[in-house]
From TrEMBL:
InterPro entries linked: DUF1972 (IPR015393), Glyco_trans_1 (IPR001296)
Entry protein name: Glycosyl transferase, group 1
Ranges where the DUF1972 domain occurs: 1-173
Gene3D superfamilies documented for this protein: Glycogen Phosphorylase B
Domain Glycosyl transferase family: 188-298
Pfam hit, one: Glycos_transf_1
Keyword Transferase among record annotations: yes
Species assigned in the record: Shewanella loihica (strain ATCC BAA-1088 / PV-4)
UniProt-recorded Gene Ontology molecular function terms: glycosyltransferase activity
Keywords: Transferase
Keyword Iron set for record: no
Length: 352
């Protein structure tokens, strides 16, 4: 029996993002030889479960996001010194500045998923970027294994640090399993987009393109998250063909929206392999993705790509739906080959 403590997420049951979905599915699909403990933010869980998916849950009264995440992760690592696990799975680099000290007091095997080059994200100022870059360096230097979720990031780690990393993506098949009883839903003529409303996800570009088209867009996101998102909501909420939808975490509701859509728009320009993209690929819908290395690797260079609002307008207003259908078929083939949770779980457990 190997005891694995997971550090760096909000916690489970998953209620936030990609890392939380990863932990939810690792614990759900784990073998009998692995015993998980997941450290959770008590701020996010009014009901504090003791166990979930067979994993022990423990809580720290700090936020797992924003600047407080640094202290949250460091306190989590200190907790691991005393609980003496066989493996510490660190998700993200926020607290990795502490790893040199952690290694002095713990013999645990440290496996760190460095996420999607967090320090490069547009939302950070110069000082947070410098801190995150140093934390990334500490993560790579003091981890026993570095995990990346996209070949573009693996290439970066090799070039920047001269270290080979393990590339393990995310699964996405959980998005279709929960909605099998809704298989008879008819396809409707609307495009779907889903993301956090941040500049790096090219939200403004997508909205601008559809505001100049008569095609319908349903866009799911946290529209009250920031001044940026609120301004976009104010600007485009009156557009007759654009529906701005608040976050949806219920898989059945998401299944219906995804299954009924005709195309999917993916604007992410950073962050490695994006969970919402691999989930959508399992639906066999044509993917229109922003043209960057991360998205090309994730979609096996087989989606339709755009770099500007004008390019996206040309694509969505075209009538080449036979080409779109072929793209959708290719997406589900890639998803079944690369993005299933059982395979992801087995890859992680080999590292333990």
């Amino acid at each position: 029996m190997r005891k694995v403590v997971v550090v760096g997420t909000v916690g489970i049951p998953a209620c936030y993002g990609g890392f939380e979905s990863l932990v939810e599915n690792l614990t759900k699909n784990s073998s009998a030889e692995i015993k998980y403990e997941v450290i959770c933010s008590s701020n996010s869980y009014p009901e504090k479960k003791i166990e979930y998916n067979g994993a022990k849950l423990s809580y720290i009264p700090l936020s797992a996001n924003g600047m407080q995440s640094i202290f949250y992760d460091i306190v989590s690592l200190i907790k691991c010194i005393f609980s003496r696990p066989d493996v510490v799975l660190v998700l993200g680099v926020s607290g990795c500045i502490f790893l040199p000290f952690f290694k002095l007091f713990s013999r645990a095997r440290v496996i760190t998923n460095i996420d999607g080059l967090e320090w490069k994200r547009d939302k950070w100022g110069s000082l947070p970027r410098k801190f995150l870059k140093i934390s990334e360096k500490m993560a790579v230097k003091f981890s026993d294994v570095v995990v990346t979720d996209n070949k573009a990031i693996s290439d970066y780690v090799l070039y920047e640090y001269g270290i080979n990393s393990e590339t393990i993506a995310y699964g996405g098949d959980h998005a279709i399993i929960g909605g099998q009883h809704h298989q008879n839903l008819s396809v409707q003529e609307y495009a779907l987009a889903l993301c956090r409303i941040e500049p790096e996800n090219n939200v403004a570009m997508i909205l601008d393109a559809f505001s100049k088209s008569n095609k319908v867009l349903k866009f799911i996101g946290n529209w009250e998250h920031s001044e940026f998102s609120r301004k976009l909501r104010e600007k485009y909420s009156t557009s007759k063909n654009i529906q701005l939808i608040d976050p949806i975490y219920d898989l059945d509701t998401l299944f219906n929206l995804r299954k009924s859509s005709s195309i999917y728009i993916h604007g992410h320009s950073a962050g490695g392999t994006n969970p919402s993209l691999v989930e959508m690929m399992h639906f066999g819908k044509p993917i229109l993705a922003f043209d960057c290395d991360f998205n090309r690797y994730t979609t096996d260079n087989s989606a339709i790509y755009f770099k500007s609002s004008s390019e996206l307008i040309d694509i969505i207003d075209s009538e080449h739906y036979t080409r779109f259908e072929k793209v959708g078929n290719k997406m589900v083939e890639v998803a079944n080959r690369c993005y299933k949770w059982q395979n992801v779980t087995e890859q992680y457990e080999k590292l333990y």
